[in-house]
């Protein structure tokens, strides 16, 4: 049996869960929720995900979970010896460094990139003009954060040390949209250590599989 993921293929959060499943060799059945029709707001969906957002997961035993980061952590911990190892370390110090890196992504990367994507990608899709002043403000903030990333990554291969973790993988869905859909690859390529790290992540076979199949 496979876990069931109720989501939208191009959704960044749906793609994060799918990426973890691919890294961990977990069978996944994607049940597409049509956001353009508002299916995520229908009573049957909201009964499982009260905020009306994708995705949510139903495990083989019927266990229901929403929020992509929570789903990713659950699956990694449920299948520790399957697929890519160490995505969440178990050694106390290594786990603390992972949590530090995960917080770095959540508070020093995601808020900046998410708003830029709203302005440069989602508004464009709807035919709405972007607020370029707001984009510049957030881009300036992101650049300052990535300068710090470059220092960190000059000392180690990944954000939590020399092994890839979920904290690194969490950058891929929004980072890819920033680089390609929003047309800002220089955010990554202009810094040598960030560029090396980003290219390493982006070229992972699991992520390339997601890009080819979740569109």
Automatic annotation (TrEMBL):
<dbReference type="GO" id="GO:0006749">
    <property type="term" value="P:glutathione metabolic process"/>
</dbReference>
<dbReference type="InterPro" id="IPR010987">
    <property type="entry name" value="Glutathione-S-Trfase_C-like"/>
</dbReference>
<dbReference type="GO" id="GO:0009636">
    <property type="term" value="P:response to toxic substance"/>
</dbReference>
<feature type="domain" description="GST N-terminal">
    <location>
        <begin position="1"/>
        <end position="83"/>
    </location>
</feature>
<keyword id="KW-0808">Transferase</keyword>
<dbReference type="InterPro" id="IPR004046">
    <property type="entry name" value="GST_C"/>
</dbReference>
<dbReference type="InterPro" id="IPR036249">
    <property type="entry name" value="Thioredoxin-like_sf"/>
</dbReference>
<dbReference type="Pfam" id="PF02798">
    <property type="entry name" value="GST_N"/>
</dbReference>
<dbReference type="InterPro" id="IPR040079">
    <property type="entry name" value="Glutathione_S-Trfase"/>
</dbReference>
<dbReference type="InterPro" id="IPR036282">
    <property type="entry name" value="Glutathione-S-Trfase_C_sf"/>
</dbReference>
<protein>
    <recommendedName>
        <fullName>glutathione transferase</fullName>
        <ecNumber>2.5.1.18</ecNumber>
    </recommendedName>
</protein>
<dbReference type="GO" id="GO:0043295">
    <property type="term" value="F:glutathione binding"/>
</dbReference>
<comment type="similarity">
    <text>Belongs to the GST superfamily. Phi family.</text>
</comment>
<dbReference type="GO" id="GO:0005737">
    <property type="term" value="C:cytoplasm"/>
</dbReference>
<dbReference type="InterPro" id="IPR004045">
    <property type="entry name" value="Glutathione_S-Trfase_N"/>
</dbReference>
<dbReference type="Pfam" id="PF00043">
    <property type="entry name" value="GST_C"/>
</dbReference>
<feature type="domain" description="GST C-terminal">
    <location>
        <begin position="91"/>
        <end position="215"/>
    </location>
</feature>
<dbReference type="GO" id="GO:0004364">
    <property type="term" value="F:glutathione transferase activity"/>
</dbReference>
């Amino acid at each position: 049996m496979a876990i069931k993921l109720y989501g939208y293929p191009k959704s960044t959060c749906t793609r994060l869960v799918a990426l973890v499943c691919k890294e961990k060799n977990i069978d996944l059945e994607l049940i597409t929720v049509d956001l353009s029709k508002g299916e995520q707001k229908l009573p049957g969906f909201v009964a499982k995900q009260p905020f009306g957002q994708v995705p949510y997961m139903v495990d083989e035993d019927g266990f229901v979970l929403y929020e992509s980061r929570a789903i990713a952590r659950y699956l990694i911990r449920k299948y520790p010896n399957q697929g890519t190892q160490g995505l969440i370390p178990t050694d106390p110090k290594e786990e603390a460094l992972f949590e530090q890196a995960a917080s770095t992504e959540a508070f020093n990367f995601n808020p900046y990139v998410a708003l830029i994507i709203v302005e440069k990608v989602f508004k464009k899709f709807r035919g709405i003009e972007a607020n370029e002043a707001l984009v510049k403000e957030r881009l300036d903030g992101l650049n300052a954060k990535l300068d710090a990333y470059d220092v960190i990554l000059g000392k180690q291969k990944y954000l939590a040390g020399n092994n890839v973790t979920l904290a690194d993988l969490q950058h891929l869905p929004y980072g890819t949209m920033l680089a390609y859909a929003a047309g800002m690859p220089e955010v990554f390529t202009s810094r040598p250590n960030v560029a090396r790290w980003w290219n390493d992540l982006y070229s992972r076979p699991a992520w390339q599989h997601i890009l080819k199949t979740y569109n």
